[in-house]
Amino acid sequence: MMLRSLLWSLLLMGYVCPVGAQELIELNQGQFHFQSNEAIAESESSITWQPVSLPDNWNKKHPDMGGVGTYRFDWVLEKLPENELLALLLPRVSNNAKIYLNGKLIAQHGEFNSYSLIWNRPYYMTIPTELLRLGSNTLDIKVAVKANYFGRLLPFHIGGDTEIKSAYQRLYFLQVTLSQICAVLAFSMGVFLFFIWRSRKEPVYGWFTLASLAWAFYSLYFFVATLPIPLEYWVRFCFSCHFIMLGAILVYFCHFIGWQHLLRERFILGYAVCAILLLFMLPDIHVFHGIRWVVTGYAVMYTILILALLKSFYYDRHNRKAILGLVCVGSNLILGFHDWANIFFILNHPYVLQFGQPLIFIMMGHEMLKSYMQALTVSESHNRVLAQRIQESEHALRQSLEKTRQAEHEKILLKERERIMADIHDGVGGHLVSVLAVAESSATKEGYVISETVHQAMDELRIVIDSLDPDEQCLSQMLASFRYRYQPRLDMHGIEVIWNFDQLDKFECFGLDKALQLLRILQELMTNVIKHAEADKVTVRVFVRPKGENDKTYVLSLTDNGKGFDVSHTIGRGLGNLKRRVEAVGGLIEFRSNSLGTTVEAQFL
Amino acid sequence: MLNVQVVEDDKSIRTRLIQAIQDHPELCLTAYSENFRDAERALVNKPDVLLVDLGLPDGDGIELIHKARRKSAGAIKSIVFSIFGDEKRVVRAIEAGASGYLLKDTPFVMIANAIVEVSQGYAPISPKIAKYLLKRFQVQAEQTKQNNIDVGLSEREQEVLEYTAKGLSMKEVALQMDISYHTVASHTRKVYEKLGVNTRGEAIFEASKSGLIHLHST
What we know:
By secondary structure, chain A is α+β, with helices and mostly antiparallel strands. Chain A has helices at 2-11, 13-16, 58-61, 161-200, 203-223, 231-257, 265-281, 284-315, 320-344, 357-426, 428-442, 445-467, 475-492, 512-533, 573-584, and strands at 25-27, 29-36, 50-53, 56-57, 67-77, 86-90, 93-94, 96-101, 104-109, 123-127, 135-145, 152-153, 156-160, 496-500, 537-547, 551-560, 588-594, 597-604.
């Protein structure tokens, strides 16, 4: 009762500080007389009036009977209104009402048939001044209702039009407009989620769609005054939606939190279906009892959910979903309990459960936005990964293409080499070897010269052929082959060679051209040593000489202990050749010679 | 005395070769021919050493080496007489059973000595062939690891091949490894023998070279 007074005083705040001159009167004590539909109109004198105090539901006192309940209120008017009309505000009157002032009909609220339902909207009217009497006035409110539906009247007020009207607007907004907004919101949300559900096929969206649409239809109950179907079916339809909504929200929350096991979907659905069947089977007189018990069942299920949420919240405070669920379900449960109590204990408060729904929408929107953002982030990162993979595979493809091209190139080279080799083997090489055989067998000086020249020619050929072999294109391998090839010749001439190739690994990026030239130079130098130097010891060295900070020079040096020669006067064909060879690859060659031996240094950049 | 049979299609080379063999006190020429057919017929003389030119006008020298080995149950030692740059064929000849090879431009005086050396078990390997063999045995080792067949190189053999691939002569290899010249020779001979055991290796190696099989490079 305290809560109710507080609520009303808040709503009717205008009366607390009246602006106009009119006195505000609250009428809550009167007399009541019931007349059933079948009853014959009684004369005024034979009516027995019972005292009544508002709020009152007369249909409770006359179960299973439709008819008209007349509430009579007497109030004394000390002076007639002058500047401002008097107005009347009925916060809630169910279901249809006719208002009489001093025996004259002044207003009719509702259509007085079974397609009219105005249980939840306030009624406001101005009172015609000419019908008012100075002193005692009588106000009759005849509330007509079908059997077992609402025949009730809440305490109402008479006062200055300005205040009454603004209070009416507030009440209308709260009870009708807000309900309409909620219904539209729920419906739009339902449609929106329906399309998401159709494309995503995630049950959580399906359940929320069902809940939203059921909620939207249930909300119609709060503001639709002219019904599309007779009242008794309308009530059953609206409460069926209510049951579906309660069940769907329950299932949705269980899905949302990931507790499908908590309340089995099938059980909840079965419960809703049974409840709806029950609703349509029950006679009118038991319909509201049935609704109460069904809603009580839901309340139990929601309480279980709340307890589970509380437990989860207690053990894991970081479970954001549990907290969100707790806030939404909790607040809705409180609102639901309020409405349930409203029905069960006839508190006649305004109904509020429909206002709990925006909370769930906000939460759902938040969650959806969050998952959308997550999906966006994930898809962005996937895109990045994809782009990277494409890049990598492109790179790999390019590499393999390059490899293939290289392999092709090598294949061609190999083929070419084999062809040249075959030619040499059968042709040039064979002839050269023949010549060599002839020259060696002649045992003359000419023969010796010829054989030497043929050897040189063959060495030159070897270098050319080897350079076509991919395996032979590094300097170390070339030098190894050279060393192997020359060893017998050197042994034959009794020349000991010290090969110092320790730094060969630093010649990694020494190009093929330079390597070939280096080899030719070495070959020529070696031939010179054999031919002219009369040495018995030779040191061959390849090494790297640092030059500046990042630069270096590759050096081939050959030192013999032969008889030496006069560098300034000996410009033989051989030495000129050597110079040309080195200069061709941008290097330089240096000779140092005396009677103790010769050192030749070829430098390559 | 070593009985030597010569197969060489080039007349001047053959003449010079015959001369070199006849001049050598330890060698005796049993037959010489300029083609595959005559050479095959002459194998009945059962020479100790068969000096074969690979490019014969009417057949493949490798085939001849193979036949010689089969007919004599390994008693005939074949030496490939080759022109440079022909390593792949040389390796095939070794697989067919050749005991060694000689380059045609080797001074003829040395050729006679080399024939004696090969017959005594000395198996010359050029750096190029050594490198080729190293790669090949690596592939073979990888392939046979699963089958638990050990036809791979021993550590010493591997070492010998590595030094040889760098251009070191047998004497130098012996010095480096602190073993005798003869031990080095026996290692190379074993490598040749192993090469003849599993000829599957080459197919695998060729496949790896053409990119069908991935190999770790040495």
